[in-house]
């Protein structure tokens, strides 16, 4: 494939940025990829494993002359990074990000974007429980969705160019506005993460059931929660603080439903429980048909070693 | 391997019984395995796919002369089945079950067990989101735990024999008492299932986020909940109705923790959130080290087809 951008700069070198680098290289989507991470240890690791064509010692150095600058830092740090790199941004360049929350990122970043530079927020819906520069791999975005959330007044060309990059990295791309994005993600990602964190916290907190029992018997259902609850703490703290309204709203709905089921258990209302559990089964079938999961029995268990 | 039992009867032919049959055959653990299912369609399917050496048209016919009878029906149906087969049970035979709740099963089944027949309740901690006679496979129990919950006064021999069967089917075996079993399972399995069902129900119920959006973007975290929430509705209804006290207790703890995190979000207490999320990460590491999951990135995603 011919280059989509001559030079791409990745600011922040965690799971997403490192996967972007390997996916860009896999498809030859950029001439040069520069990178910067705040921690010197991360920069050293990146240099050692060949992550980025050039690892820079400041965000400005990495961003200078880049045709695309992607902010891959926690949502709470986006504004400060945008302010720092603003003076070196090339006219006609595009700034994007990979944050899980969009309204807050737009409010924090857009004021720093100079005239003549485009800002096209994005959010790849892909991840694993691992984080850091060594956790990335080229296939992370394959057949996953990336949502573009262009701000008002953005011309179509920079949006189309960013779409081409994400499609070149294997993703399916869709556009939506920031408010709808934040609500959809509160339902499909943010609230599920908070609930998983809570359940794992409860299990760890109980003294009558030992930690080793929880761990040994996790395959009975708990295991799937721990996978979610092992995600990066800083990233998730920022998500909840910056998508507060939508998360609290969905949490309120969740609590309401949970209390209704709890009441059905307490009163022995088996019909209510059976109806509810039958209904939720159909949604799973839709996810398998949409290609976002496999129906292989117990999902990957063959890989588990004794 | 030489036979552990001459004849085994499986009453109920769903995921667990069909997996037991294939695992017994894989290791040659029994001379003959008979089977019975209440639904004629299930019995026909079993005959067609060669599930059981002999499929019988009544539970009594299947159980008659068996050295081990395993009740593989929903927890709420165990008592009636035990009553039905009691008259044909062979002296010296063992009756067992695979129910997810133990105190209730013991109370429902034990009164029907004749003098001279042993009752050794058991619970294999293994399953998939699929159910029915065609969902079983020989590897289901490999490296998974099966808990034996012997009742007072049971001699050691029938317990040891049942242990040998489960170990022959690939499981790790441990013994515990019924009350502790029901609490451990409320933490590791029952409450997580209820929460997953609730979250999936909430997502499906929201009208501002469409079903197709929930399904398309499920890889962002929600997907893991739907896998759990696709389990058999009848089985889970019975679990919650019969392990009511422990489930309600753990749910109470869960709600307490959730409200504390919700408050931290509302007040912007980032330190509380970060500490909590850091703590839950460690438990995940323990589960991987205990061999109950793999740390492969995004767990099996390579199998997903577009």
UniProtKB/TrEMBL annotation, chains A, B:
Q: Which SUPFAM superfamilies match?
A: 6-phosphogluconate dehydrogenase C-terminal domain-like, NAD(P)-binding Rossmann-fold domains
Q: Does the keyword Ion transport apply?
A: no
Keyword check for Oxidoreductase: yes
Q: Which domain of life is it from?
A: Bacteria
Q: Which UniProt keywords apply?
A: Oxidoreductase
| Gene3D superfamilies on file | 6-phosphogluconate dehydrogenase C-terminal like domain, NAD(P)-binding Rossmann-like Domain
Which Pfam family is an annotated match for this chain, by its short name?
PDH_C
Stretches assigned to the Prephenate/arogenate dehydrogenase domain: 6-295
| PANTHER family noted in UniProt | PREPHENATE DEHYDROGENASE, PREPHENATE DEHYDROGENASE [NADP(+)]
Name-wise, this protein is Prephenate/arogenate dehydrogenase family protein
Native source species: Lutimaribacter marinistellae
Q: What is the lineage of its organism?
A: Bacteria, Pseudomonadati, Pseudomonadota, Alphaproteobacteria, Rhodobacterales
């Amino acid at each position: 494939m011919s280059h989509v951008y001559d030079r791409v700069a990745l600011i922040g070198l965690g799971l997403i940025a490192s996967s972007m680098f390997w996916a860009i290289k896999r498809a030859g989507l950029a001439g040069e990829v520069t990178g910067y991470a705040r921690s010197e240890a991360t920069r050293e690791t990146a240099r050692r494993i060949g992550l980025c064509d050039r690892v820079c010692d400041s965000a400005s150095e990495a961003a200078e002359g880049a045709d695309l600058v992607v902010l891959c830092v926690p949502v709470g740090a986006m504004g400060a990074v945008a302010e720092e790199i603003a003076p070196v941004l090339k006219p006609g360049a595009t700034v994007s990000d990979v944050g899980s929350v969009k309204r807050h990122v737009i409010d924090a970043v857009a004021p720093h974007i100079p005239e003549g530079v485009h800002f096209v927020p994005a959010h790849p819906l892909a991840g694993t429980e691992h984080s850091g520069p060594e956790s990335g791999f080229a296939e992370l975005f394959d057949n996953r969705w990336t949502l573009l959330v262009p701000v008002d007044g953005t011309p179509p060309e920079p949006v189309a160019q960013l779409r081409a990059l994400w499609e070149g990295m294997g993703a399916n791309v869709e556009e939506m506005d920031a408010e709808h994005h934040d609500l959809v993600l509160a339902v499909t990602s943010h609230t599920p993460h908070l609930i998983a964190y809570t359940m794992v916290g409860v299990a760890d907190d109980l003294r009558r059931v030992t930690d080793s029992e929880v761990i040994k018997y996790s395959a009975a259902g708990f295991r799937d929660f721990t996978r979610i609850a092992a995600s990066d703490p800083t990233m998730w703290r920022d998500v909840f603080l910056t998508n507060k309204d939508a998360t609290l709203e969905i949490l309120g709905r969740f609590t309401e439903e949970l209390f209704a089921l709890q009441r059905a258990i307490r009163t022995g209302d088996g019909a209510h429980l059976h109806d509810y559990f039958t209904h939720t089964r159909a949604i799973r079938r839709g996810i398998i048909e949409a290609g976002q999961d496999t129906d292989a029995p117990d999902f990957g268990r063959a890989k588990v070693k004794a």
